[in-house]
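Sharing a chain and its predicted structure for anyone who wants a worked example. Both blocks are below, sequence first, tokens second.
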Amino acid sequence: MSRNFLKIAQDINVQPLQMALIRQPELFGNRTSRSDAYASPHQQMTDIWVRYNAYENLKRDPEKFNDEHDSVWYPEATALPQVRPIVSWLMSHVEGERLGGVLITKIPPGGKIAPHVDMGWHAKYYEKYYIPVQNDQGALFCFEDGIIEPQPGDVYWFNNSRPHWVENHSQRDRIALIVCIRSHKASQEVLCHGQQ
């Protein structure tokens, strides 16, 4: 059993979000600072920033953009109202106390996210949850001690402070919703899971 991920739910209805993304492909790749960064592990993917530090703060002071902040909803949240019911359900399920970033990632067939560890205040403060929206056989979320090959609508907690990477060996885009939540309950469950 992996100490770096834990399936916490399944059968979340992600089809409305999947259809909304098919209808609005132009939403992907509008904010590219993650994939454009030199030697970024995310160079082969595009994403949609739904919620994070106010985007004008990136232009104001890029060096401090990932420092402590209160996340805000981006205009993309209005274009994708299907995200909020999933996030609200997850907040309730894990007894969330504070909602952080919300991100949708897309990796093309044959693409990957290179092995990396998430750094900075946001990554250390929040627990991270992974909900596959479109994930065909061969789209793998990998850790040193195990691999997640999920079904759309599964929900996983994962440890972003340990090396992780994604490989898309399928014939379609791999699309995932990433939600960051601060939760005392989640932290306690993770500690118990790690001791098993």
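Comments welcome. Helices lie at 15-23, 33-36, 56-60, 75-79, 83-93, 121-125, 184-195.
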